[in-house]
């Protein structure tokens, strides 16, 4: 997006990218462009044009890599937990990893490191916490509560709920309605 705005004649902008270091591939491309410019031979202009495309592509790739490292370094566990809280119903590790530009393995490691529990456990606990709120504060049938929090298999929902809270959802409702 930055480069598209930078070359647009219709978009006012005051941003720029400063490359303080260039990689060896970009250095080779620049050297080749200079050679073609100063030692003109057949098709030198076309080679310079092609090298310019290669150079810009290389710089875009470098920019994206640096940008991703910056995003990752400024991301807090709160951001990850908030994302889970908003998307728990149908969330997968792959979807979340893609959203934050992580590999699934790295995201899984990061969540486990920061929370002490796995991604899967965290999503299950989030779903069940929301289920508890629905069960305590509404008269919605249990099967609808299970659907609202992302469980299509009612038996699995009951099993998980009981393993965490020690009660069936119906017993939990009875206990918390009094």
Would you kindly provide a written description of the structure presented here, covering whatever features stand out?
The protein is mainly α. Helix content is 72%, strand content 0%. The radius of gyration is 27 Å and the shape is rod-shaped. The mean pLDDT is 86.
Please name the defining characteristics of this protein.
10 helices; 178 residues; mainly alpha; 0% strand
What topology does this entry show?
Elements: H1 2-7, H2 24-38, H3 44-73, H4 77-87, H5 93-99, H6 104-115, H7 119-137, H8 142-148, H9 154-165, H10 169-177
Helix pairs in contact: 2-3, 5-6, 7-10
How would you describe the oligomerization state of the chains in this entry? single chain
Which stretches are poorly predicted, pLDDT < 50 over at least 5 residues? none
Which structural category do the helix and sheet elements fall into? mainly alpha
Radius of gyration: 27 Å
Cα separation of the termini:
57 Å
Biggest sheet details: none
Overall shape: it is rod-shaped
Helix content estimate: over 70%
Please sum up the structure shown.
The chain has 178 residues and is an all-alpha fold. Helices cover 72% and strands 0% of the residues.
